[in-house]
Specification:
The complex is a heterodimer of chains A (349) and B (174). Chain A has 349 residues and is mainly α. Helix content of chain A is 66%, strand content 1%. In chain A, strand 1 and strand 2 form a beta hairpin. Chain B is globular and about 45 Å long. The chains are: A mainly alpha (349), B mainly alpha (174).
Chain lengths: 349, 174
């Protein structure tokens, strides 16, 4: 018992517990911030103003949105499957939070000497981190599929079916692009992969994997957008065809949980992309102790690209999505994987 | 009881309970979900055996890919709930026959289990001594392509044969 008390009151434990709380809160807040950013960027692209009424420049709009969602009535169709209808949003949001667990977002730090030993800026250091993120992310589809089935409505069911077909098609290419980077780096730990991208070629070009593996990055980006159900691959909720797809019958906080899951998944995919391809927290001018600033800048840029793509590209047709996944992305990823394997074997990189 | 043993019983219990729910549920969607829960229990057991790679692959391939396909098919075909009344109306031969065959298989399984348990009575939970845990991916790959090459290749031929068969079956319907 005494051991337990000393362990719980040790600075390292308190620091880790705080970190878990901070990341949990930051992910939730990021969803609210993304909703605001989404509306502002959309308005900017369409030469509108976007939200302006609540607070200066509409800055308090996300808070108003959250309050509205809290106080709306929760509806459930009579013919819906009560248990799975309730569980679906919980599965969605839980997997979204879980997937961020093994993602590092900064170099080890002592917080200005507060801690006796440096601590890694990540929740869980797993030696097969890349695979764990992939596994947890692939669980997220159950939330959508079950929501579609349990709602007992034809639009929801179509959204759920489309989602599962889309996930199966894009997961292979996604995994292949991850495998390419893992093979090139010779490690599955994200911290090691990030540290391998330190330094510069000719003193100018940073040694990021995006320059060595542009094809893998392209495949990863496409599959990542498809996995997070964002435009131009947002078929599960294609509003012009399916009302709102899998969350047609949802309201109030249950609906908000699906929304939160979508935005958190975007953050996770972007964070993984920053770690795998954009050199993680390494960058010029900022001392390594504050590497998380670089990480946030790169993350914000990728998230902006998400919004940029949504308001620039029209949605694919469904059969185009399928043939793009199976006939373009998958062969591209496979050839890239084989070539990289041959290169690694021949040059012993 | 150590924490390892406690975790073992928790995961093993989840796996067994999940498998029981698979066969007792009347709604096929619930069966699929119970099977996923059972896979998670198995994955936990792999972690206890110090094989995190196998544990994660178990989740990715079975829970993440194959079960999504199962769920997809169950939902697409809209498989109806099994009703007890319908089962009773089945051909009179089926019921006693199914009970007999099932009973024989259950006895066989129980005997095998008893035999296996009698041989490992002295061993504790966890990795047996003398067998180093295969935790590194590189080591696993090396072993797979050297010592177990034959089994690995035969399995891949089996999978390709199944794939070709599935394509041919699907084409015939047109």
């Amino acid at each position: 018992m005494a051991d337990l008390i000393t362990w719980v009151t040790s600075p390292t434990f308190i620091a880790y517990a705080t970190l878990v709380g901070v990341v949990f809160m930051a992910l939730q807040i990021s969803a609210a911030v993304m909703v605001y950013a989404e509306r502002k960027v959309a308005a900017f692209m369409q030469q509108r103003l976007g939200p302006t009424r609540v607070g200066p420049h509409g800055l308090l709009q996300p808070i108003a949105d959250v309050v509205k969602l809290f106080f709306k009535e929760e509806l459930r169709p009579k013919a819906a499957d009560a248990l799975l209808f309730t569980m679906a949003p919980i599965i969605s949001v839980t997997t979204a939070f879980l997937a961020f667990g093994p993602v590092p977002f900064g170099a080890a730090t002592t917080f200005f000497g507060l801690l006796p030993e440096p601590m890694a800026l990540m929740i869980a250091d797993v030696n097969v981190a890349v695979l764990v993120i992939f596994a947890v992310a692939s669980m997220g589809v159950y939330g959508i599929v079950l929501a579609g089935w349990a709602s007992n409505s034809k639009y929801s069911l179509l959204g759920g079916l489309r989602s599962s077909a889309q996930m199966i098609s894009y997961e292979l290419a996604y995994g292949m692009s991850l495998a390419t980077v893992v093979m090139f780096a010779g490690s599955m730990s994200l911290v090691e992969i990030v540290d391998l991208q330190q330094g510069y070629w000719f003193g100018v070009i940073p040694k990021w994997y995006i320059f060595i593996q542009p094809v893998a990055f392209f495949v990863f980006a496409c599959a990542g957008i498809a996995e997070t159900n964002r435009a131009p691959f947002d078929f599960p909720e294609a509003e012009q065809e399916l009302v709102a797809g899998y969350h047609t019958e949802y309201s109030s906080m249950r609906f908000a949980m699906f929304f939160m899951a979508e935005y958190i998944n975007m953050v996770t995919v972007s964070a993984v992309a920053v770690n795998l391809f954009l050199g993680g927290w390494h960058g010029p001018f900022i001392p390594p102790e504050y590497g998380w600033i670089w990480f946030l800048i790169k993350l914000a840029f990728l998230l902006f690209c998400y919004l940029w793509l949504r308001w620039t590209l029209p949605r694919f047709r469904y059969d185009q999505l399928m043939s793009f996944g199976w006939k373009v992305l998958l062969p591209l990823a496979t050839v890239n994987l084989l070539l990289t394997a041959a290169g690694v074997l021949y040059f012993g990189l | 009881m150590g924490s390892d043993a406690l975790l073992f019983y928790a995961f093993a219990g989840a796996a067994v309970l999940g498998s029981l729910l698979v066969v007792t549920q009347k709604n096929p969607v619930y069966s699929v979900l119970a099977l996923i829960a059972s896979f998670f229990g198995l994955s936990g057991l792999y972690v206890l055996l110090e094989a995190p790679f196998v544990a994660v692959v178990q989740i990715i391939i079975y829970a993440g890919a194959i079960m999504v396909l199962f769920l997809f098919v169950v939902m697409l075909l809209n498989v109806p709930r099994e009703d007890a009344a319908e089962w009773d109306r089945a051909h009179p031969l089926y019921r006693p026959m199914a009970v007999r065959i099932g009973g024989a298989l259950a006895v066989l399984l129980a005997l095998e289990l008893a035999w296996a348990l009698s041989r490992t009575a002295g061993l504790g939970v966890g990795v047996a001594d003398g067998h180093p845990a295969v935790s590194s991916v590189a080591e696993l790959g090396r072993v797979l392509f050297t010592d177990y090459m034959f089994a690995f290749e035969v399995t891949s031929i089996l999978i390709i044969a199944a794939m070709v068969g599935a394509v041919i079956l699907a084409k015939k319907e047109k």
